[in-house]
């Protein structure tokens, strides 16, 4: 029987797993180690699809009901291309501030009896030698994964496009994709509100546009100012807000194996899904649910439990990550797609991940399809 579990990383995956484990086994020693402070976070808002919230409601209605009142929700996606605004109906999303979500999950984990240790920077896993199970929920640069790289067979590839994550004190009606052609080349912004007054604003650039704009030689303030100029029309005078906002290339992480010995991974320590499909937090939460279930089914045989976790969860993750990778491929070439007229471009966008065929598009977005046919035939 498990006596102690050490979780490395207090993001959504680690905190939610701590809560689930303590709910299942109140006497179990569950400790979460996080190198940052409790109120530190990077990025702004995170999104959940309507489908993801349905799964959470079915699996854990109490946590679902605790989060929902703090979320902003909408049922359309907006695409702006060549100055034309096109709304695509039937695509439900909700958003919440990342720090707000973490605060809610911290409270649930603590109330359940988990011990949360912030400012706990581990140089190695030696300090966790007494734990029956060590869970790596510590993100892309996972210490748990890198401490035994052979066990996990990790591979990381970086995409070519650059992106930088901002906030802005301006609410947008829906999750919006704004594409602009500039003197430097093509840029895209992913933006959505996560409070009644604040929105996430992610700027993406293809490598050619990024180089021509001179971002390589700019500091953070100059970068933020130029991004604000590029998207001045949609920002309408609202300044971008930074928070450790630096250009990055998205890391595509996959692991051949999910566990080794008494170590197991979940969330971004295990896999990444391109931000364009809004499934990163969903994957983290659902990984935690699957691991808790597997441990609960066979608490006396850790090897069997961890194998069951991977066997049950991997097909679902592989499917979502494959869709995310197809979406990422579309974005890697978004400058070429922008040669299309706005309506064909919007259709290309909404079908980019290969999960929406003609029949499903007609069913889920009848208003968009009606207008699409009127404008394209």
What does this structure look like?
By secondary structure, the protein is α/β, with parallel strands linked by helices. It has two domains: 4-70 and 96-157 and 251-327, FAD/NAD(P)-binding domain (3-Layer(bba) Sandwich), CATH 3.50.50; 159-249 and 337-376, D-Amino Acid Oxidase, Chain A, domain 2, CATH 3.30.9. 41% of the residues lie in helices and 27% in strands. It contains 15 helices and 15 strands. It has helices at residues 12-24, 50-59, 61-67, 98-112, 143-147, 149-152, 207-213, 220-230, 232-235, 280-297, 302-332, 334-337, 342-350, 358-364, 366-376, and strands at 4-8, 29-34, 45-49, 72-81, 84-97, 115-118, 133-136, 154-168, 175-181, 186-193, 199-205, 240-241, 248-255, 259-260, 263-265. Strands 3, 4, 5, 8, 9, 10, 11, 12 and 13 form a nine-stranded mixed sheet that branches. Strand 1 (4-8), helix 1 and strand 2 (29-34) form a beta-alpha-beta unit. The longest helix has 31 residues, at 302-332. The radius of gyration is 21 Å and the shape is globular.
Task: Describe the secondary-structure layout.
Elements (H helix, E strand, L loop, with lengths): L3 E5 L3 H13 L4 E6 L10 E5 H10 L1 H7 L4 E10 L2 E14 H15 L2 E4 L14 E4 L6 H5 L1 H4 L1 E15 L6 E7 L4 E8 L5 E7 L1 H7 L6 H11 L1 H4 L4 E2 L6 E8 L3 E2 L2 E3 L14 H18 L4 H31 L1 H4 L4 H9 L7 H7 L1 H11 L1
Parallel strand pairs: 1-2, 1-7, 2-6, 4-9, 7-15
Antiparallel strand pairs: 3-5, 4-5, 8-11, 8-12, 8-13, 9-10, 10-11, 14-15
Helix pairs in contact: 1-4, 1-10, 2-3, 2-10, 10-11
Pfam family, one: FAD_binding_3
Enzyme class: oxidoreductase
Keywords: NAD, Oxidoreductase
